[in-house]
Amino acid sequence: FSFLMTEALLIFSPETSLLRSFSRKVKVRVHWALQLLALLCALLGLGIITYNKHLNGKAHFVTWHGLTGLLTVLYAGGQCAGGGLLLYPKLMKNWTLAKLKLYHATSGLVGYLLGCASLMLGMCSLWFTTSVTSISWYLAMLCPLLTSLVIMNQVSNAYLYRKRSQH
After folding, report:
1. φ and ψ at 151, to 5 degrees?
2. pTM, to two decimals
3. How far apart are CA 31 and CA 49, in angstroms?
4. Would you state the torsion angle of the CA atoms of residues 143, 148, 149, 151, taken in this order, to the nearest 10 degrees?
5. N or C, which end of the chain is more exposed by having fewer CB within 10 Å?
6. What gap in Å lies between CA 7 and CA 140, rounded to an integer?
7. Which residues does the UniProt record annotate as the domain Cytochrome b561 (predicted)?
């Protein structure tokens, strides 16, 4: 989920995208496909974890990791629905396409940060901290932290670019 979401967002980055020479339309379609795949992975993971907890008689969604994970999956579903509206902007008659894109990017950043928070909370679990120790734990924790900074920078740069082009 985290990998697919990160790649889907970086598609629009002029510095890091493997598809920077492709048209915006191609980038949007690849973004859409990767985000949908990320959502399917999240739903599959949620289903497997829920089933495993059911088999072992454990409570569901009682940890911060479980709650933020559930919220992330629900948010990602809503974000995918909102992204679908961007494919058909005429359905949103009272909104400009530029505003829709800005709101989608901003709310996508919130969802991405929520997913990273869930991932980091999972790394604080008893199982993870006993399985991954010393410097490895810190390196694992750095991954979502650094990717969050990269994605936040990308979204803020896109926002600033739009602001400058409006003046």
Report:
1. -65, -40
2. 0.88
3. 27
4. 120
5. C
6. 18
7. 1-162
Question: What whole-number distance in Å separates Cα of residue 87 and Cα of residue 24?
Answer: 12
Fold classified for 1-165? Four Helix Bundle (Hemerythrin (Met), subunit A) (1.20.120)
CA distances from 14 to 2, 23, 123 (A): 21, 12, 31
Residue 79 contacts by C-beta under 8 Å, 6 or more apart in sequence? Answer: 35, 104, 107, 108, 111
Asked if 116 and 145 touch (Cβ cutoff 8 Å), the reply is: yes
* Mean pLDDT, rounded, of the chain: 90
* Joined tokens for residue 9: 């967002």
Q: Cα dist. 137→34, 94, 121 in Å?
A: 28, 48, 12
> Three-state SS across 21-38?
CCCHHHHHHHHHHHHHHH
Work out the angle at residue 118's Cα, subtended by the Cα atoms of residues 113 and 119, and round it to the nearest 5 degrees. Answer: 95
